[in-house]
Input
Amino acid sequence: MDGMRRVNHLQDLSASERGYASGRPSDPHDDLGLRGLIVRDPYATQLLTGEKIWEIRGRPTQIRGPVVIAKAGTGQVYGVANLVRVLGPLELDDLVTAEELPADERDEFRREGLPYDKTYAYVFTKPRRFSRPLDYQHPNGAVTWVRLGQFDLDDVTYDSSAFGGAQRAVG
Output
């Protein structure tokens, strides 16, 4: 990762990367709609509480903007976060020293090594948990991304404990 340079997640982001004003995809020509990223727990929960801001994957993505977080194996989505950047490919040292990852995940990398031949970090900001999990239609064969055309983030109620009071998305 750029030699010895460590990434300070929030300080290294441009103002536009720190958050998006609307719940719309970042590319206005993208007709695929809202995307869901399938994440196993406990990492999905840690993303939505802000404890974890990097999600580790074996491929980069061009997707940016709001991404709904689906917990693997549940058929439900639990919240949304803004995917603002993809870092990598990363080295093992980048992962085991990354403050952007929870300690248990860093320990897992120390024990098991790099999870992929080329390892990338999807960088998330502004996590928001839904007030309750929502069902979604999981297509056969989907293991990383799902299209969630049926969801409108303007109509979702968010967990009040994450904000100190009941909140709805602002479009």
User: Anything to note?
Assistant: Residues 14 and 84 are 9 Å apart (CA to CA). The chain has a mean pLDDT of 80. The longest helix spans residues 103-112. The helical segments are 15-18, 43-49, 92-96, 103-112.
